[in-house]
Amino acid sequence: MLKPFVPPIEYEEAKEQAIDILTQMTLDEKISMIAGHNMFFTKGLERFKVPSMYMSDASQGVNIRRELDDQLEKSVAFPCSIALASTWNTELAGTYAKSIGEECRAGEIAVLLGPGINIYRVSQNGRNFEYLGEDPYLTSRITENYVLGMQGTGTIATLKHFVANNTDYKRRTSNSVVDERTMHEIYLPGFEAGINAGAMAVMTSYNLVNGEYAGQNKDLITGILREKLGFKWLVMSDWWSVWDAQKVIASGLDLDMPGEPRQEYPDYTKKPEHFVRYSAKSLIQEGKVKEADIDKMVTNVLTTKIAMGLLERPIKDTSFLKNFDEHEAVALQTGRESIVLLENKNVLPIIPSDEISILVTGEYADKIPFGGGAAEVVGYDQITMINGLKEMYGDKVSHIENPTDEEIKAATHIIYSTGTFDSEGWDRPFDLPDEINQEILHITSLNKNTIVSVSSGGGVNMSSWNKDVGALLYNWYPGQLGFRAFAEIISGKTNPSAKLPITIEKKFEDSPGYGYIPSGSELYTGWDEDHRIIDPIQDVVYDEGVFVGYRWYENKHIEPLYAFGYGLSYTTYAYGNLVLDHKVISAGSPLHLSVDVENTGKMDGQEIVQVYVRDMESSVLRPVKELKGFQKVYLKAGKKKTVDFTLVERDFSFWDVATKEWKLEPGVFEICIGSASNKILAKAQLEIK
Hints:
The chain contains 17 helices and 25 strands. By secondary structure, it is α/β, with parallel strands linked by helices. Strand 10, helix 13 (385-393) and strand 11 (397-399) form a beta-alpha-beta unit. Helix 2 packs antiparallel against helix 10.
C-alpha cells in the first residue's frame, strides 16, 4: 500500500493558520488572492509573509518562459508523458517527477502544472502526448507515484484537467456528455489516485461537462471532487476557461487563472463578468454571493501554501542545480524503457560491424520531434536520431534527405523516421499523409531491412505498410536524449521492454470516439479557432460508456492493429504455474496470487506482467476484462521469477448508479495473466461469496 505524501504542516494546523490570517485581511486583499497575477503567479501578501507562487508547465519538464525574468537557464526535456506510461515502471515515474520537481525548486517554481492525466479516448486528441494512456488503472499507478516524486521535492503537483477533457477540437465550446458510471470507472480513477497520494492542487478543464463549464461547475467541483473524492486543497481553473464569475465563486473553485484578459484575444473574451477579480466586489454588494464564499476560496489558497511550508522556507533552492546530470540520466532511462518495438522480422538488433551501412532518412532524422503548446520543453544538448546513431555506429551511418533507389538498395539497412506534430489547441488526423505512406512502401519494396521509426503523441494509421517493414518502433516524443536510447535499442545494447499504454486501431472509424467531430466540420490547426467561445456548444456524447480503449475493441470484436499492453523484446518469456491462494473468498477479502515468468531467450530483459479480471456474469454490461495489476520484472537470460500480486474488493467491482457506490456482485471471476491485453497466457477461476 502506497503511503500518501504528508506536507510539512498538516492540513488542520495549516487551515487554522490560514483562518487566522484571513480574519485580518481586507476584502480587497481577499479578492486579490483568488485570481492570478502576471499570467503565471498568485498574489502574495507581504504583511502576512505570504509569498507569491510561480506556477509553471508541465508534466514532462519545465517550460522555460523566456518572456519572464529570473528563469532557469536550462531544463531537461524528458520523454513525454505517454512515453512515461509506456514504460509501465511506477518507480521510474516517481524518479522522473522528482527530477522535474528539483528543477522547479531551482527555478523558484512553487507549483508544477502537471501531471496531465486525461484518458486517451480518441487517437486524434492533440494533447494525448501529455497524458498517460487509455486505461484508468495504469494511469492511476503512474499518477500516484508521480505525485509522490514531485511533492517530495517541496513542489506542489497539479492534477489536470478535471475532467473529461479528451479532445482539443474547439475545446472551449465542447460539452462532454458522460454518464455517472462511466465517469467513476474511467475518467475519475486517475484523479482519485492522485488525491489519495496527497496531490495538493487540481486544475479544471476548458470543456463543459454535462452542460456546464468544468471550472464553474458546482456539481463537479464541490459534489464530486471535494465531497466524493475528498479533495481539500487548491482548485484552479485552466487559463481563460471560466466565463461567469458568480458561478465560479459558488462552484468550489479557489483560483481564477490567469485572472485577467489576454489582450490579443477578441473583445468578446474580455467582459468583466468573466473574471472573479473584476466582479467579486460588485457581486457581494448586489447580494449574489457572500463574503463567506470568498473566504472559503482564500482559505484553501492559504492553507495549501502554508501546509507546503512556503511561508517558512524559500521556494527557490539552487542546490538542486547540481542534480542536472542525474536528471539527464533519468531522461535517458525513460527513453530506454519507453520505446515500443511493434514489428521485427529478425532485422533488429543491428550489431555494429564493418559490414553494415545504415541509411537514415525521413522528417525526424535530424530534428527532435515534440508536442506543442504549454507542455513544450526545449531542453539542451539535444541528441538527434543521426547524432545518436553516429555515436553508436560512427561512419557506418549516413543521412540522405532524398535518397535515390540505388542508394536505398545499396544500404544494408534503412531507418525511416516519420511522425506527427501534436499540439494543445487542436486535434490532428489519425491518418498519415499519403505521400508518407507511399514513400514507406516504396522504400520497403527496395530494401527488406527497412526500419520505420514513428514519433507521435498517440496512435497513427500504419495499416497500409506495417507488415511490409523489417521493423517498426514507436518513439513517442523522446525529449533531448531519447534518440540515444533509440540507438541503443537499434544496436541491441538495450533490450526493448516498453508496452503500449493505448490501443492503436486499424482505421479511425473503428475507435470508440469516432464521429466526435460535428458533421460537416473539419479538423484545423492554429490558435485562431481555440478562443472562439461565441461558437455554438457542441455535445460530445460518450455513448460508448465504459467501453474505452481495449474494452471497446474486445466488446465489439474489432481487431486492432496493435493491442493495449503489446510490445516486443529481443528475448522471449514463458509464463506458468498460476496459483491463487484461495479459489473461494468472501467479499471484502483480498486475493493473493502468483505466477512464474521465465526468460527463455538469450538476452537479459524486462517483462511487463499484466493481470486482468473478468466478471463471468453481471447484472450490468461489463468489459470482457479489465487491467487490475501489473509488474515490470527484470530477468537475466535463462532465469525464472515468481511474481506476486494482491487484488482487493475494488478490483472486482463496478460503479452502481443506484447506490452511488462501488458494488461487488458475488459470483465467478476469471483471473487472466498475460503479456498484452490480447495475449493471455494463464487463467484461473475464483468464486467470491
